[in-house]
Backbone:
């Protein structure tokens, strides 16, 4: 399993649009990718569940990937968060 | 006449008949079924159709209100494809053996409650989005051809709430304004109203009795008048006329060059004080930002804004301006703008005290943080940095050295930055008198006429007793402006005005004849001044 942590910088937090794009990006991998915020977890391919976490600016999130392509998946996620969130 | 007050969404005035808009209340029947497979299939077909509708709406909104605002429909489509949402619909159909409409309605309610219960305003507002997509699927399922051409004559729409898709689909030529009970100023509907320039109020206790009555929306003051009396009507008709004139100016002058009759190009830029003002800059067709006051970053906070926070703000503005020039002025506090956490001593004469560049050159940590953020943002467009309250060549040389250090640091860390023009505000008589020397050191001058006038005439701007002798057209000030322009041009740099005098339409011709290269004014003055520029000769 691979993981990284990230502090949300986006003013609104993980809002609808990035959550949607995140789900799309994650679906390209076979690994299970999850996000943890304040002790709550969600599968990142699940848009509503991710929005339901209510991650806000300044919150620390931990992204975990587990599966055959976990290295590639975690790299892609890192890039995604740094660019959009 | 009755008067109500609410929260304003867009600052316009509208007069018209009210149309009380009620959503066709979907009576969802719970129907038992044996053939759950057929219901799931019906749902899938309806969902695909709904997604197709959303794509079409996205295309329509893209043209009407731009990509950033159209995005909501793309998000709606994504929501409809969400695994949990779909699983919930399948489960209800399978486990309860019920029709697709009921399963979608229940799922929509559950998810919308989840959002409504969150403690953040943004996420709370998403409850409306979930309802919107669920209703769309139900409409398709029950064969409702959603008829959104509800408006046949120009009306003010009064409704409990409006979904973004409803707002976009209404015929804008007939939508005078709207008033809703619910909704927030963050909602997509509110954002759309602003983009479409539709006067709108929220938070008003609405009444279906109003249907067909005449009303006035005063978006400037957040007021709604039902059955207004003659005086009120007259007053607002006059306001609308004024707005119409301004609009005419806009349509006639938008996209035209800021060029004098004899072909001299004037840079006509806008002054802004926050990120939110950028929309106004673009709407009024300014060709750049000539003064971005960075103070708000500091005034709104309880502690020093970090480099990252500042970078995000500058970057947003620079990106939104898409390659057009953005002149950002470094921190200009002190005098009448005080910030608690700077812990500054009380001064006898703050206008001549510890302020602006004097603070920055004394507290280099604050200055460098801002400069790093500015240089980083310069990688995303065309940035110029302007320094306030300069009185000596030495200050400029010190500033330039610090900028070189910042560039070196960024390069060594592999961080990108772009070409940055460095300029100074000319707002002290000292800077005017040595403008020949200063011009050798910088890329541009921007004359801050407010301070320059108060220092030159020795008149405190805050003292209302002196208003009658405060002459903003004083010959001394005009001669100073001429001197600065001439000295700038001798060294081949551009010279602009960013103070209030720049927006004084009685002086526009004078400034052009004096040889001014740039005028930076409040967004609402851009087009009136463009009109004058285009009717004036530069010689």
Residues:
């Amino acid at each position: 399993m691979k993981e990284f942590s990230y502090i949300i910088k986006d003013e609104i937090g993980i809002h609808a649009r990035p959550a949607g794009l995140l789900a799309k990006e994650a679906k390209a991998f076979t690994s299970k990718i999850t996000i943890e915020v304040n002790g709550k977890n969600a599968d990142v391919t699940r848009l509503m569940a991710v929005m339901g976490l209510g991650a806000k600016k300044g919150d620390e999130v931990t992204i975990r990937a587990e599966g055959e392509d976990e290295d590639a998946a975690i790299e892609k996620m890192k890039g995604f968060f740094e660019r959009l969130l | 006449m009755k008067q109500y007050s609410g929260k304003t969404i867009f600052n316009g005035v509208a007069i018209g008949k009210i149309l009380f808009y009620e959503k066709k209340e979907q009576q969802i029947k719970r129907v038992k079924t044996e053939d759950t497979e057929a219901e799931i299939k019906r749902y899938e077909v309806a969902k695909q159709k709904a997604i197709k509708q959303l794509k079409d709406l996205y295309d329509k909104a893209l043209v009407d209100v731009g990509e950033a605002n159209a995005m909501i429909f793309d998000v709606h489509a994504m929501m409809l494809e969400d695994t949990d949402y779909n699983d919930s619909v399948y489960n209800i159909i399978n486990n309860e053996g019920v029709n697709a409409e009921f399963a979608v309605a229940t799922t929509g309610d559950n998810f919308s409650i989840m959002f409504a219960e969150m403690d953040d305003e943004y996420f709370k507002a998403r409850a409306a989005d979930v309802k919107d997509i669920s209703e769309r699927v139900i409409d398709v399922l029950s064969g409702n051809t959603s008829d959104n051409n509800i408006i046949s004559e120009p009306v003010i729409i009064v409704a409990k709430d409006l979904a973004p898709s409803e707002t976009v689909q209404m015929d804008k030529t007939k939508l005078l304004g709207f008033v809703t009970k619910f909704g927030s100023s963050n909602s997509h509907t509110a954002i759309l109203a602003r983009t479409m320039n539709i006067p709108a109020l929220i938070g008003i206790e609405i009444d279906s009795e109003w249907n067909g009555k005449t009303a006035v929306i005063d978006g400037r003051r957040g007021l709604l008048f039902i059955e207004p009396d003659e005086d009120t009507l007259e007053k607002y008709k006059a306001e609308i006329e004024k707005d119409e004139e301004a609009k005419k100016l806009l349509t006639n002058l938008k996209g035209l060059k800021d060029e004098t009759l004899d072909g001299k190009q004037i840079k006509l830029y806008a002054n802004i004080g926050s990120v939110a003002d950028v929309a106004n800059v673009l709407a009024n067709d300014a060709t750049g930002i000539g003064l971005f006051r960075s103070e708000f970053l500091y005034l709104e906070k309880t502690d020093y804004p970090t480099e990252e926070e500042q970078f995000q703000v500058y970057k947003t503005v620079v990106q939104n301006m898409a390659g057009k020039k953005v002149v950002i002025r470094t921190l200009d506090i002190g005098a009448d703008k005080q910030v608690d956490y700077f812990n500054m001593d009380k001064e006898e004469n703050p206008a001549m005290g510890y302020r602006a560049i004097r603070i920055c050159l004394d507290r280099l940590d604050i200055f460098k943080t801002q400069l790093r953020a500015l240089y980083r943002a310069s990688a995303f467009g065309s940035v110029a940095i302007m320094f306030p309250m300069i009185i000596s060549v030495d200050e400029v040389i010190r500033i330039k050295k610090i900028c070189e250090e910042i560039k070196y640091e960024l390069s060594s860390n592999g961080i990108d930055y772009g070409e940055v023009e460095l300029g100074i505000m000319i707002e002290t008589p000292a800077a005017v008198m040595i403008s020949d020397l200063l011009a050798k050191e910088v890329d541009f001058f921007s004359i801050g006429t407010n301070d320059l006038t108060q220092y030159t005439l020795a008149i405190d701007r805050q003292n209302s007793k002196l208003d009658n002798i405060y002459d903003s057209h004083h010959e001394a000030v005009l001669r100073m402006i001429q001197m600065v322009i001439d000295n700038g041009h001798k060294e081949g740099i551009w010279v602009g005005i960013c103070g209030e005098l720049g927006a004084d339409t009685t002086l526009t011709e004078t400034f052009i004849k004096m040889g001014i290269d740039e005028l930076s004014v409040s967004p609402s003055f851009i087009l009136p001044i463009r009109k004058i520029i285009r009717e004036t000769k530069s010689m």
User: Anything to note?
Assistant: The helical segments of chain A are 16-26, 47-52, 70-84. The two ends of chain A are 23 Å apart (CA to CA). The first helix of chain A runs from residue 16 to 26. The beta strands of chain A are 2-7, 32-37, 40-43, 60-66.
